[in-house]
Write a structure and sequence with these properties.
With about 110 residues, this protein is mainly α. It has a domain of about 70 residues. It contains 3 helices and no strands. Helix 2 runs antiparallel to helix 3. The longest helix has about 35 residues.
Amino acid sequence: MKHRFHRITLLAAFAALCLAQVPQPEPQPPPAPPVKLPNGKLQRDEILKEEQAENRKDAEELVELAQQLRGDLEKNSRYVFSLADHKKAEDIERLAHRIRTRMQHN
């Protein structure tokens, strides 16, 4: 009987020790209330609206650069790219990255 009580006590101590090592999740602070602007609109909506306008502007520039690059490549009869073509390709990548980053931000 005494051995059984000793085993149960050791088992309970081991279980308590194991449970004490389990990381407890930290309580999350409550989400901040939405910020309203003086005109009554939500700040987040205004930011999204502005980012959408910037995306449209960048997309138009992206299309224009892509069309210019395509025309330059069709005119070129050699298999060598000019520095201007290389710069246009880099600008296209930069604009596409900027648009993608803004979309991921939402």
